[in-house]
Amino acid sequence: MENAYAPISEACVKALSDKTYEKRKIAATEIEKMVADFNAKKSYAQIRRIIEVLSKDFVTSNDSNKKKGGLIALAAASIALGKDTERFIEEIVNPILNCLMDTDTRVRYFASESLYNVVKVSRGSIIPLFPSLFTSLSRLVTDPDQSVKNGSELLDRLLKDIVIESSHSFDLDSFIPLVRERIMAKNSFARQFIISWISVLNAVPEINMVVYLPEILLGLFQMLEDNMPEIQRMCESLLTQFLKTIKSDPTAVDIPQMMNVLIVQAQSSNALIQFTAISWIKEFVQLAKGNIIRFSSGIFTAVLPCLAFESESKKHIKDCATAVNIHLLELVSGEEKQQHLKNLDLDSVMEVLRQYLIHSSVPTKIAVLKWVHHLFTEVHDEMSSHANNLFPVLLRDCLSDSSDEVVLQAIVVLAEIVNSATAKGSDFDQLQYKHFLMELLSLFSENRMFLENRGTLIIRQLCRLLNAEYIYRTFAEILQEERSNLKFASTMVRTLNMILLTTSDLFELRNTLRDIKSEKSASLFECLYKCWSHCAVSTLSLCLLAQCYQHVSEIVVLFADMEITVEFLVEIDKLVQLIESPIFASLRLALVSHTNDNADAQHLSRALYGILMLIPQTEAFHLLRNRLQCVPNYWGQPAKINSKSSNESQSKINFKQLFENFQQVQAMHHRQRLEQRKKNQF
After folding, report:
1. What is the pTM of this model?
2. Cα–Cα dist 105/96, whole Å
3. DSSP tag of 591
4. How would you class 129 by CB atoms within 10 Å of its CB: exposed for 0-12, middle for 13-18, buried for 19 or more?
5. pLDDT score of 644
């Protein structure tokens, strides 16, 4: 009967199928000798027949012993062939690869051992089958059996050595898809396998791995959160190598293609991933410059929240995010800023910045406000369309912030918007200016604590940044029309008056008011007076500042017919204190001045004595009395004073009309107080 396994003898077939390893090994040795003889005679058909028998009748058999025998024999055949294995490489390797997925642990182990021996003999000739080998290896490294896993590690190292030797013929384009398919794996051993291969190939000078980085970057970042410290260390080291390569040659890779991945990873809850991503963004901003500007909105989304980190454990992330913000700002501030600004997607940037002005930390808000201010400074025309959306946020959120720094920076932005708009001089822009101040007054009206705590700070800063005279004129024009909320109008006037009298930045405005002989100063005085009439003592101090001493004495006389409230006395007390301040040095000197035929001195003296008679004998009373004791006694002078010598007479202001307005406004306040008392009784 003909042997179905020829040229393999029946005895050899039986031994290959034996359950003992020793007999299978002896049979494999016989196969090795047989193949060596056929190869020496170049009987390739016989060799192919042997491989076919081993593959079909042994390796694919359901009998595990036959499989093991066939695997050992295939390795033996390859050893016998040596370099000539290349002729039969697919016929030998493919059956072995199939066994690597066998359910029997021992079969998988023998398959990995067999494949190791075949690869060791084949060396470079195995490269065409690399995709299949890599795929099988990626499964073996996660095998639950340690012996199989150990075998796979040996095979893995061998295959890496061969790829390095054959780097000139290695098909990187075929390798990358294999990596891309597996790089998102969650298994730590699979991750270690992928990282090790990328690292090995990246270290080969002839292989340019960095060009493929955009395809695998996301997976590498995901591996940074692995529970095994060794995986994290390997991944960090690999990413560091890639970044070093990019820094030495920024053109080696498409940097913009990686930005979206970095932006997403920079928002990770994992500190290592977040820090690494932001570090890369920082380097890319410096390397790619203008090409990165178009990703500004995404970068802001990633780095602005990091500015709020306060814990020591996240300080390095905050510092890195701060550096990114600074470098980005430098790009739109330097010599090439106009070119860079053209690449800026202003709409998306402003949407992100506006969102971070609400419910964010102080450092984040400060950074956002500085960006908004810079953009209004550099591209005002393009930013004008965003002013309407920004105004409510700046007014309602930023100005109410608990941080003075945020409030001050918000005012800087508001001032820049208003100033730039007003400079154009159109009616719309003037209305926008007034609208801004009306909104601010509305905010003060709604929240009295806000006015009390922040009103002075906000108004003083506005006066520094904008035209102080225009600010005061506009406030006065709005408030003098107030009829429903007279108490607020009075409070607001007191606030404005105190700022006017005590702020060094309003020195020029005070000097303007002292010169009521000029038409401009007279106009300003009249405008303020009509508004200041909401507060009697503020009106008095305004007239003292403007050196309208004759009118001051007339107002003081009127006080006798007015209701003297506690609030009124407190205001008078403050005024007396202010008279002793440097602001009113000219007033004190006027008490001993002989100018205007002593008219100013006499009117002022009588007005101050009138105030002295109104206030209780408090500290302010004694302070004012001591001051008046230092001046000449004008009571012995003739009662009639030359009214034509006073400051008022030398100006074109209609004081009679102003006085009537003052009386009318004060009468309204009195009526409203009475009505309020009646309501409180019921």
Report:
1. 0.82
2. 14
3. T
4. middle
5. 61
